[in-house]
Each structure stands twice: as C-alpha cells, then as structure tokens.
Amino acid sequence: MSKAKIIPRLQSIDALRGLVIMIMLLDHVRETFYLHKQVSDPMNVTETEPALFWSRVLAHLCAPVFVMLTGMSAFLFQLKTQSIEQTRHFLLKRGLFLILLELTLVNFAWTATFPPEVIYLQVIWAIGLSMVILSMCIGLPKKILLSVGLLIIFGHNLLDQISFKDIPILQHFWLILHERGWIEFEWLRIRTSYPVLPWVGVILIGYCLGQFFQPKFSVQQRDGYLLLIGMVSILLCVLLRLINVYGDHAWQSYDSVMLSLMSFFNLTKYPPSLLFILCNVGVGLILLIVFERLVRTRFVNILVVFGSVPMFFYLLHLYVLKLLYVVCVMLWGSTTASGYFSVSSVGQLWLITFLLTLLLYPVVNAFSTYKHANKQIKWLKYF
C-alpha cells in the first residue's frame, strides 16, 4: 500500500476522533462545573433545560464513535502490518493497558481517593475490554464477526429484563456484561457505568467497516458505502423510534414541540440502546466522509492534532479540570445549596470548553509532534 493512500484516511479518522474529544471535553466540563444540575439516563425532559439537554445529547456521539474508530483502526493496523498475530498482540497489550489506566489514573482523577473506596468502570474500561475481546476474534471470517456484531447490537435489548440478583456471582458478571449497577464488597464498591456487551458489538462493526479502507476500494467507492451505511443506520433509528416498540424506552408527544423533540431524541446510553448506537454510529460515519473532503483545512488540521494523541489528551484534561475545580473552590467556595462550585449557565460551560481548548492545544500539539518524531519509542504509541 502506498503512503499517499493511507495518510488522508488516517487524518480523517484522527479528525473525527479530535471532534469527539472536543465534545467530550464539553461534557466533562459540565460534570465538573454544573453538578448542581445533574442529568439522569435517559434524561427527564420536563426537568432538564433545553440547552443542557442538547449539550448532553451532543456528547452521546463520543463513546460510540471512539469505539467504532478503535475497531476501524485495528483493521488498518492489520492492513499495515499484514500480520494477524501482531495485530492480536497489539490489541491485547493496549486493551490491558487501558483497563489498568481506568483502574488507576483515570479513577483517581474522578474520585481523588487512594486507596479507592469506589471504582468507576467507564469508557476507557469499555474500550480496553472490547479491544481484548477483539484481539481474541482477529482471524475469524469477517462474515462471522459482522454477524456477531449485528446480533449483539440488534439483540442486546432483549436481555434488559434478565437479572441474577439471587445468584451473586452471576449477577456480578451480568453487571459487567450488560446491566449498569453496583458490585459491592466490604472494602470496595464498583460501579459498572459502561457494561461491555453492546460496545463489543460496536467494535466488531468498526473492525468490519475498516475493510472499505483497503486499496481495492477507491475513495468514491469507500465514501459511497460508508455514506449508505450511515444513512441507513440513521433512517432505521428514526423508523424504529416512530414505531416506539423496540430499541429503547418509549418516547412521548407533548403539547410543546421542543419537549416532544427532546423526548424523541432522549436515548439511553447506559448501556447504549440499539437506537443510541444506530443514531450515533450513523452520524459518525457521515462525519468521517465530511472530514475526508476537508482534510487539508485548518480546522480539520487542528482536530487531527487532538485526535492523534487521544489517551494523552484524556488524562491531561481530567487532571486540568480537577485542578481548576480545586482552585475555584479555594477562591470562591461553594456557590450552590448542594455544596458545589458551579457556573450559572450552559453558555458558560461552552465558554470554558473553548478557553480550555485554546489552553491545551499547544501542549497537545507539542506531545503529538514529539510522538511522531520518535516513533522508535514504543510506549508512545499507547497515547
């Protein structure tokens, strides 16, 4: 494969990853400076202001796109190395590394307690464990991987009513696999925020979609297939939502058009419902095509910088937000009856996000430059 063929594709993937990183930053700013108005899952549309609701809905794009691109990047890695064993080995090591980060540095950034009393198994955990599972699947026929991925995505909501509460060992496994909840021991509580089964389906689909980046597909062919899949995914989400029978909780029609729209797009993230996955993966694929067309623009180049070192940015922004919150509490104390320091509007959350983007860009750019100039340093590829 020629270098000219692969660079633009990788840049478009990095650009899409960079975009969802920016959106993720907004959501984590919300979780840091807007705790007096926490949102449920799914959200209560009658109690959530529209600006907060739509900001949260925008953030729903992040996890599905991250996981899909992880699967897609795994296929590209295999395409580059031409080695199933090397790809399997890399996925296994990187997946275990992400799980370790979730249990240590990431969890400490959220809880600030050591040894931890509570461990939150969140998106990095889900991506890491999905990579480990994908590493075990590498080498199977793609038709099988595609079939299993689709079966998981379309069928996992049928498992929503299953519970093993009377069998603790099975219940613990079930909470990790499919049901959001608490695993409790005398000395530790574990919150399974991201049950992993649906995310395995997404990473398998992402891996299968990676085949369209093979040299035998022209740019026009690839974009045509991805656009078709993205549009069908969104259309299927809308049709199933209108039927209002399967794929998520039922939506309601209100006298207010805004409330009705909010109810319609109020999809379940924990675990991600069928409609949640269809909608956000579909939008992600369309955005990927858009970024391929805009690959040389300044805006996309900025996104590429953030998307080229996602793990570095993830850890960096968590600790910057933690530091900023501590400084704000020291300077102004709590500003709400609930005891939190909080800003007063969603608009201020967007402003903080914009300013943090400007602040962090030089640091991220410097690390990205260092990483790509020192490819012989093996540990850098994990960031």
What does this structure look like?
The chain is mainly α and 383 residues long. It has one domain. Helix content is 67%, strand content 2%. A three-stranded mixed sheet has the order 1-3-2. A hairpin with a 4-residue loop joins strand 2 and strand 3 (189-191). The longest helix has 31 residues, at 3-33. Residues 1-9 have low confidence and may be disordered.
Largest sheet composition:
3 strands, mixed
Indicate how many domains the architecture comprises. 1
The helix-strand sequence is HHHHEHHHEEHHHHHHH
Give the C-alpha Rg: 21 Å
The total count of strands amounts to 3
Distance between the termini: 25 Å
Spatial strand order of the main sheet: 1-3-2
Shape: globular
Mean pLDDT score:
92
Report the structural category: mainly alpha
Keywords:
383 residues, globular, 67% helix, 3 strands, 3-stranded mixed β-sheet, membrane, single chain, mainly alpha, 14 helices
What layout of secondary structure does this protein have?
Elements: H1 3-33, H2 50-59, H3 62-81, H4 84-111, E1 118-120, H5 123-137, H6 142-155, H7 168-177, E2 182-184, E3 189-191, H8 197-209, H9 219-243, H10 257-264, H11 274-293, H12 298-308, H13 310-332, H14 346-373
Parallel strand pairs: 1-3
Antiparallel strand pairs: 2-3
Helix pairs in contact: 1-2, 1-3, 1-11, 1-12, 1-13, 1-14, 3-4, 3-5, 3-8, 3-11, 4-5, 4-13, 5-8, 6-8, 9-11, 12-14
